Amino acid sequence: MDHAFEHPIDSFTLPQVRQVPAGRALVWLQRGWADLRRLGLTSLGHGIFVSGFGVVLLALSWTAPYLVPAFAGGFLLVAPFAAIGVYALSQQIENGEPVSPPAAMFAWRRNANSIALFGLLLALALIFWERVAAILFAMFYAGTAPDVNHLTREMLSSADHWPLLVAFFGTGFLFAAAVFSLSVVTVPMLLDKPVDVVTAALTSLRCCTLNPGATLVWAALIAGLCLLGFATAMIGMVVVFPWLGHATWHAYQDLVGQVDES
Fold first, then answer.
1. For the chain, which residues make up each domain, given as ranges?
2. Where are the alpha helices (DSSP H) in 40-147?
3. pLDDT digits (tens, 9 = 90+) for 172-191
């Protein structure tokens, strides 16, 4: 049933958002790790798939250095959508249901239109960021970089490229902060309740404004663990991706109260 545009007035009645201490983000990681250990290969299979896809993208972007930060940022943009199956597995455990990978794979059908719409918005954000990265690279980099290794050596050996680094990281930070604020609990909420995209995104934003400490710590943990995954040529992402996916489900459960479905 299409819930994306039903009850337009009621959909703007946001659910209760709980306030939690900054250190609560560590609890989400602990609970996510417990789910990962319980599920084993069932959960790691998602990480293997995502890591394999990431390796392909990295290989394709190797001779186009501007695509590497665009790819890394884009990975973080689409990760909340790609982790739907991981959220569903944690939901099954929490509800005391038998673990069913096929059911988790098709869990998006419960709120298909809203989830698809949010996926489209993330895809558009990814395309926009790729174009911004290309423009920044063209504006601030005057040399010829045949591959990523060459570019990395130049960046580390010359201060002439600092404006490029500042532009990339500054713009990327602002863009990532905006997307993170609107998506931190959006996909788990769309999976869990028949709400529309606007309600879920505004609830996510409210989670961030009411819990700046916890969400900042959470963002830092996500960035750090994903950096570890990238630094290991995506091998570490086999564990990092499902771990963060399970933890994100617990973050949603911890932050968002019951939604009035009447």
1. 40-255
2. 41-60, 67-82, 84-94, 101-105, 112-140
3. 788 888 889 999 999 999 99
